[in-house]
Amino acid sequence: MTGQGRGEGQIAWAGRSMPVLTAIGERFAAERPLDGLKIAACLHVTAETAVLVGALKAGGAEIALAASNPLSTQDDVADALREYGIAVHARAGVDRATYYRHIDQALDIGPDLVLDDGCDLVNILHTERTDLLEQVSGGCEETTTGIIRLRQMAAENALRFPMVAVNDTRTKRMFDNRYGTGQSTLDGIMRATNTMLAGRTVVVAGFGYCGRGVAERAKGFGARVIVTEIDAVKALDATLQGYEVRPMAEAAELGDLFVTVTGNRDVIRAEHLERMRDGAILANAGHFDVEIDVRALADLAAEVHSGVRPNTDEYVLADGRRLLLLAEGRLVNLTAAEGHPAAVMDMSFSAQALAVEWLVNERLRLAPGVYDVPEEIDHEVARLRLAATGIGIDTLTPAQEEYLHSWRVGS
Ligand code: ADE
After folding, report:
1. Do the Cβ atoms of 186 and 217 come closer than 8 Å?
2. Global pTM value
């Protein structure tokens, strides 16, 4: 197969597991809700993203796409999208400067709307491309880290247009963050190392929706799971779900595999690295490459063997212990594997597409700020996904409706 053919094949394969987004794309093709609008998007350039981009283009949008991570681009998918008329500024393995240049180039489209995953594009718009701000009437943010940054911008009155928090939908957090991150993170770790998880100790740093997903899947493989947290409620929740909870300083000595999923920096730092066992594997599933202090690891290492396996670098410490860093500390699920499965992205990206449509209708009424996706969209996505997978649910009887809505009805 040629590169182009392979990309098309992958997009078609993903589309088979994305019936809801495909149906939305078909409706968009008929109704053209995005006619004449220009969209600059900064998303992981994967087959699933290609299905989303296809739906938006069918709706009439002109789209420029940059990657939201320097290592996550599927190059054959990017080529196929270019053939399809999308301006794709992305290539796997680019350096930091090229990564930012690509976002800048995507912004050259002069967007009416923006789609972001991690808030880098919105950040550049508000710092380096302020000339374009006037024309932007809104956007959507896909991930937890991006929402945190947007809320900080909004709190400082720095955000200049409405942004919809797609990440905060129930269908995104409950399914994409949990099952998607859980499965794809372990997929990446196993593709990179072929390590066995049964009987090993896996340390999961962070017990948000993503961390919970990783912990559940590691447990399912037969690992002993230790959770580290800074939030007392989440830590308590982890203990009640049967996980051991310890500070990283203790967990560092016990783990065979470490997965960071906190959204914060320096979660694994020199004082932890110094205590780790020979052969410990370090992987990050948080959005940015700041969770494992890679510089500290390099400083501690006497030797570095790059690429001992694909996406695996071996750092040999002065006493001979070897620590294995996956994907340079970047998102292991999108670097060493293909990101979340299409079936889960069907829900997140359907919510994204419907949120874009909602934004287009509402944007002139919305002040700058961070907005939740309307609950009806969440329900619509779940309803359509159930229908597409042939699963029926119950409906309330009139008596049940009344019971729920009237305080006059007795118990
Ligand atoms: N984020 C996580 N998984 C993804 C995927 N498969 N495509 C796009 N963005 C993602």
Report:
1. yes
2. 0.94
- What is the C-alpha to C-alpha distance for residues 215 and 227, in angstroms, rounded to an integer? 8
Same fold, 3-172+340-388 and 180-335: yes
* The pLDDT of residue 1: 37
Q: How far is the CA of 176 from the centre of ligand 1 (A)?
A: 9
Q: Domain locations in the chain? A: 3-172+340-388, 180-335
Spell out the residues 6+ positions from residue 130 whose beta carbon is closer than 8 angstroms to its own.
none
The residues lining ligand 1, judged by C-beta closer than 6 Å to any ligand atom, are 43-44, 46, 48-49, 180, 334, 339-340, 345
How remote is the CA of residue 340 from the centroid of ligand 1, in Å? 5
What's the average model confidence in pLDDT over 371-376?
Answer: 96
Q: Inform me whether the pLDDT recorded for 286 exceeds 70.
A: yes
- Mean pLDDT computed over every residue of the chain: 96
54 alpha carbon to ligand 1 midpoint, in Å?
15
pLDDT tens-digit series, residues 114-123: 999 999 999 9
pLDDT digits (tens, 9 = 90+) for 41-81: 999 999 999 999 999 999 999 999 999 999 999 999 999 99
* Alpha carbon of 23 to ligand 1 centroid (Å): 20
Say whether domain 180-335 belongs to CATH 3.30.1030.10: no
Helix (H) or strand (E) holding 387: helix 375-388
- Substitution candidate for ligand 1 out of 10, 74, 184 with most atoms within 8 A of CB: 184
Strands 322-326 and 281-284: parallel
CA separation for the pair 115, 291 (Å, rounded): 24
Distance 46 CA to ligand 1 centre (A): 7
Give the CATH number of domain 3-172+340-388; options: 3.40.710.10, 3.40.50.1480, 3.40.50.720, 3.60.10.10: 3.40.50.1480
Q: Would the pLDDT of 2 be above 70?
A: no
